[in-house]
Amino acid sequence: MNGMSVRVRVLAVLGVAVVLAVVATLYIQGAAARTPSSDGAAAAAGPVTLDAAPVLLTVTDRHVATVSTSDPSGPRTVSGVECVRAYAAGGTGICLQPATPWTYRMVVLDRTLTPVRSADIPGLPNRARVSASGRLVAWTTFVGGDSYNSGGFSTRTGILDTRDGTMVASLEEFTASRDGVVVKAADRNFWGVTFAADDNTFYATMSTGGHRYLMKGDLAARSLHTVADNVECPSLSPDGTRIAFKHAIDGDPTRGWRLSVLDLGTLAVTPLAETASVDDQPAWLSGDTIGYTLRQGDGRPDVWSVPASGGGAPRLLVPGAESPAALDGVTARTNG
Amino acid sequence: MIRVYLSTIDRPAAGKGRRGAALVGGNVVALGTVSLVTDVSAEMVTAVLPLYLVLGLHLSPLAYGVVDGVYTGATALLRIVGGYVADRVRGHKVLAGAGYALSAVAKLGLLAAGRSLAGIGFVVAVDRMGKGLRTAPRDALITLSTPPDALGRAFGVHRTMDAVGAFLGPLVALAVLAGSGQSYDAVFVTSFCVALLGVAVLVLFVRERPPSASVAAPPRPSVRDAVALLRSGDLRRLLLAAVLLGVATIGDGFVYLMLQRRTEIGLLWFPLLAVGTSLAFLLLAAPLGVLADRIGRRLVLLAGYAALAVTYLLLGAPVGGWALLVPALAAYGLYYAATDGVLMALAGPLLPDGLRATGLALVQTGQALAYLASSVLFGLAWSAWGPGAAVLAAAGVAIVAGGTTAGLLFHKGRTA
Lengths: 336, 416
What we know:
Pfam families (chain A): PD40
CATH architecture of the largest domain in chain A: 6 Propeller
Helix content of chain B: over 70%
Strand content of chain A: over 45%
CATH class of the largest domain in chain B: Mainly Alpha
Radius of gyration of chain A: 23 Å
InterPro entries (chain A): 6-blade_b-propeller_TolB-like, WD40
Shape of chain B: globular
Organism (chain A): Asanoa siamensis
Protein name (chain A): TolB-like translocation protein signal peptide
Oligomer: heterodimer
Shape of chain A: globular
């Protein structure tokens, strides 16, 4: 190759560059033309509210939508509010949405989906929750690049009190203890908050040293302590006695997760009837039903439900949707 | 036969290398261009991969992290294999080209892997293998194409071009995302095309060896010859210095995490810490390479240790805000600029031509494995003593390692 004159080699490399540029440009333009539109599920644009009603809130095609609880696979109402993750309770909504192609923000929505507060959040949206009263909101993002083994990810979990505006940017600020000993390890990560009825107690996952613990937190005291091992993405039942969560099979997340329920009184774990690996923070759709997102082979989401007792069978609830939240006020009502 | 430039190591360039405009040879510029183009391609993917995995495929990134970590140790060892094979078949260009081509194909592999975690893990592994294969032969080509007294600036210029590519990559990815309606596939295809262009530049412009240097080809080295490299006291001492450098390094993640906590900069600005370090590296790599050729590479390497110790001390000192942020990032970038290429420039002349890539791979792998162990140990120290005490201990380690390195490299009163 080096036998060629410089002129020939320069022409050759320019030729290669032009061909490759054309290929790339054609592919980019083709991709722009193929950008997916709505997948045809019966949907009507219309006003979506967070008022207590027998409806299920979901994210459909990255937009907040509602569907009737009595006909969850039927027509749904899709709002213009774009969210990657959403949740609502007590008339308050939280929406994690793109701010730029690289960055996301957390937006608090009122009953009419009007943004009342927003904050930029670091990393990629992962979990979102609202307390039953609608006072507290929490979110989790994945942040790349700051893990000490490069290529790994870490998480950031924040909590906002919508009444007085107090914000915890990261749960890492709190004092975390495991069996009474304060955990200072740099590798500790928190994710998946769920709130109790007193708007002060909460549960979350803490990961450190290869273990993922269920933590019970006290917002006012800015502290957390371990409750159980191998509990991820907790979701507190409306009566506050049980935790639905994803349970890493044999303690190894690479083998997938089994949806399970933990009794907080006895610490007994009941695996649920869903045997597919569930990577989601479950939501209580009623006192005895769990809702969660499952993905098809191509990544398209569906909302499923399964009995919290461990019996029965999983049921496809809302096709082509994710981030389920029951708006019928069951959580607020039972918590009193 | 074995030609070792012991006498010329660290000799100032004065009198010999006054070639004015020709800062570095054409082969180094060609290799720098290949690295620049390839880094645009690689950083395009690095920038969007988290978005793709989490929001495109909805995979759990924590599981991905587990997959990713497994290959780090394996590729460090593959580097030695790549170096040795390149020497054995006398084909540095072919091995480097194979490495670049492997990484290019991996970009398309991302399309084929779909949502399969094992598939993505495999593709990432192939990409890493490509990087592991090409690094030592490429650095060997730089040393073989450059007079020993100009190695510092040759590596300085090469690393600067590399860093420019790393800077441009995320910007190109952003433009492709915007132009393609947020299509990750379009980013991967474009990245593949850019990587192929890098391979084309390598094939057309990089020479296996400058014509003037091909007096008599050295005999094909055997494994025994490769092992015999370690009998050279000078190389053993440099290898030890490389390991010490790895031991003194706690890793970007910890440095940035502490900076973020100490300066209380918003979590949102966290990624910019790496950008700040890269900027300092980009600006300093070439000037420090030139300086290394003039005042001696060992002195510049030791200055790198000093910069690392200063970085750690700043992280442990009772200052905060900009007064901490700017000096700490500058010192950290200085540490990289004073050690990365300079270590290779120091190693090159110690190695016979026929085992150049093998020797460079040994030095790089020694440093990488020591760093891997050191970052785990630092994590334990952080848990046990807290970040403040741990970073002061790291500063102590850096100072002791720097002092020991000085003793090793200035052994037997070699003059600088």
